[in-house]
Amino acid sequence: MLSCMVNFGARHSLQQRPGLARLQRVQEENFRQLQMLVPVGSDRCDSYRSEVQGSPVLCMDILERHPYTQFIRLTYAFEDKEEHALAPDAHIRLYVDARLAEVTAFDPTQGCRRSAHPWYPRKALWQKTWRQNLVLDKWLGYLLQQGHSVATMRSAKGPIGEEMQRSTSTVSVA
Q: For residue range 1-48, what is the model confidence (pLDDT) as tens digits?
């Protein structure tokens, strides 16, 4: 019974020093978990939605496809009568040949900002990469635990942003 208790003396994984081997193991786990979400034959469709009772709608867009890599966007779509929000908005690069998945950003403007430069401090960039990949690992585990899977992913009518705009622009005229 005592062996099941939390060890408060152990350092939390976010506080531990990230090493390249540890980062690679997290990215391998991210890839493995994503394979349980990305439908086989995903080359036929670019946008997917997964609806599971008790969980927000999970949206996935395949933004780019290359022989050895894919770039995807994964997010929850929170839809109210008046407001629509996407969070967390994860942009993920899949290295199919290496079986790795890395987060490039958690926001839609990720392509517009410079996140690395020779003058930027290496340690800060490394820690940011480490934290983002750990967050993705935890979120993917949570998604799978909620019941999202290849079986629940269905083709969507359009990309994430367009589908939400379409649902807000359909106004009934009386």
A: 444 444 444 444 555 566 888 999 999 999 999 999 987 666 667 889
CA distance 84 to 76: 10
H-helix segments, the chain: 20-35, 122-146, 160-169
pLDDT, tens digit (0-9, with 9 covering 90-100), for 60-112: 999 998 989 999 999 988 776 565 556 788 999 999 999 999 998 887 555 44
Q: Which two tokens stand for residue 163?
A: 């589908």
Extended strands (E) in 25-68: 47-50, 57-65
CA distance 114 to 45: 30
Quote the tokens at residue 118.
């020779």
pTM of the model: 0.74
Q: What are phi and psi of 36, to 5 degrees?
A: -85, -10
Q: List the one residue out of 23, 41, 12 whose CA is nearest residue 98.
A: 23
State residue 140's pLDDT score. Answer: 95
User: What's the sign of the alpha-carbon dihedral 98, 57, 137, 133?
Assistant: positive
Which of 87, 91, 50, 88 is CA-nearest to residue 70? 91
Q: Which residues pair with 170 in a beta bridge?
A: none
Cβ atoms of residues 166 and 79 within 8 Å: no
Core vs surface per residue 132-145: b (16+ CB within 10 A) or e: bbbebbebbeebee
